Amino acid sequence: MVDQSVLSITTQPSDSSSAVLSKGFTDWIFDCHGFWHNAVLIVSSFLFVLYLALQARKSFLKLTNGRSYIIISYYASLWLVSILNLAWGFSQVWECSAGKELTWNLLSLFTSSGMLFLEVSLLAFLLQGNNASGVEALTRTFGISGIIVGFDVLLKAIYLFAFGVPLFIDTDYSTPRVKWNLWVVHKLVLTVVYGFILFMYHSRWRERLPARPAFYKYVIIMFILNAIALFACGLTGSGAGFAFWFYRVTVVCYHAFYLPLLYITFLADFFQEEDFHMENVYYSEMKDAGFFESDWD
Predict the structure, then answer these.
(1) Residue 1: how many CB atoms within 10 A of its CB?
(2) Alpha-helix residue ranges (DSSP H) falling in 55-100
(3) What are the backbone angles phi and psi of residue 133, rounded to the nearest 5°?
(4) How many alpha carbons lie under 13 Å from residue 284 in its C-beta half-sphere?
(5) DSSP label at 65?
(6) pTM exceeds 0.85, yes or no
(7) How many Å apart are CA 230 and CA 88, to the nearest integer?
(8) Which residues have a Cβ under 8 Å from the Cβ of 280 and sit 6 or more positions away?
(9) How far apart (Å, rounded) are the C-alpha atoms in residues 97 and 91?
C-alpha cells in the first residue's frame, strides 16, 4: 500500500500553487472595481492596440510617403500612450493592493499625462490650421503641449508625493477634499476650453477654426464628458457618495474610448485618403451643408 502521508506531501505543493494562481486570477479580474469595470478597460485598450498593430505596415508606408513631421510624431506618441493605457488597464488590481500604491500612482500619472499631452497637442495643432506640417509647426505644437502638461505633471506629483494625496486611488469616495478640489479645477479648465471653442464655432470667428466636421463632433463629445466629470467631482467633494459613481464612469469612458476617438478625429483621414489635401474637402463639405450661408446674406 502507498503511504497516504507521502501522497499528501507530494500533492500539497501542486494544490497550493494552483490555489495561488486561481486566487491571483480572480483578484485580477473580479476584485477592486469589479468584473465589468476591468473588462471594459482591458478589452477596449487591447482591441485598439491590436487595430494599430494590424494597420502598422500600411500606416508606416503612408507616413513614409507623406513626410509630415506632425503626423509622424503624433502617431508615435499615440502608440506609446496606447501601450501605457493598456498596461494601466491590465494593472487595475494594483489600485487595491497594499504595497503597490507607489507603482500604481506612477503608472497612472504617466498614462494620464500622456493622454493629456495628446489632447492638448490636438487642440494646439488644429487651431493653427490643417496645413501646418513643417518642423516649425511641430515645435510650436509640441512646445505648447509640453509646457502645459509639464506644469500639470509637476502639480500632481506635488500632491502625490509631497502631500500624500491619493489622486489616482478611487476605491472610496471619502478621500481628502483637496483631491476633489484639484480635479474640479482640472475638469473646469478643460470644460472652459472646449466650451470656448464651441462658442467660436457659433460666432462670427468660426472661420478661424479648421473646417473639419469631425473636429467639432470631437469637441462636443469632450465638452460633455468633461462637464459631467466636473459636476461629479464637485458633488463628490461635497460628500455626495452617489456622484462618485458618475466620476468613475467618466474615468472608464475616457481611458476606454478617448484614444480611438482621437484616432478617428485626427489620423484616420490621413491613412485613408490618397492625398493629404483635406482642407478643401472639408470646406466643400461644410459649404454643401449650408455652413457658410449666413456669410452670403
Answers:
(1) 3
(2) 56-66, 69-90
(3) -140, 5
(4) 5
(5) H
(6) no
(7) 23
(8) none
(9) 10
Q: Three-class SS of residue 133?
A: coil
Tell me which residue of 245, 230, 226 sits closest to 173, measured CA to CA. Answer: 245
Determine how many CB atoms are found less than 10 A away from the CB of residue 87. Answer: 13
Nearest to 160 by CA among 237, 105, 98, 112: 105
- For residue 297, the 8-state DSSP code is -
Task: Kindly give the interhelix angle for 69-90 and 35-54, rounded to the nearest 10 degrees.
Answer: 150
Query: Grid coordinates in use for 28?
Result: 485580477
| C-alpha cell, 236 | 463628490
Convert the pLDDT of each residue in 221-276 to its tens digit: 999 999 999 999 999 988 887 889 999 999 999 999 999 999 998 888 777 754 44
Cα separation, 220 vs 217, in Å, equals 5
For residue 109, give the C-alpha cell: 500619472
Cα–Cα distance, 207 to 186 (Å, whole number): 29
Task: Please answer whether residues 123 and 145 qualify as being in contact, where contact means their C-beta atoms are separated by less than 8 angstroms.
Answer: no
Per-residue b or e along 121-142, where b marks 16 or more CB atoms closer than 10 Å to that residue's CB: bbbbbbbbebebbeeebbeebb
CB-CB contact of 193 with 123 (8 Å) = yes
pLDDT tens across 83-128, in order? 999 999 999 989 888 888 899 999 999 999 999 999 998 888 767 6
Count of residues in the chain: 297
> Which long-range contacts (C-beta less than 8 Å, at least 24 apart) are formed by 101-109?
101/166, 101/169, 104/168, 104/169, 105/160, 105/166, 105/167, 105/168, 105/169, 108/167, 108/168, 109/153, 109/156, 109/157, 109/160, 109/168
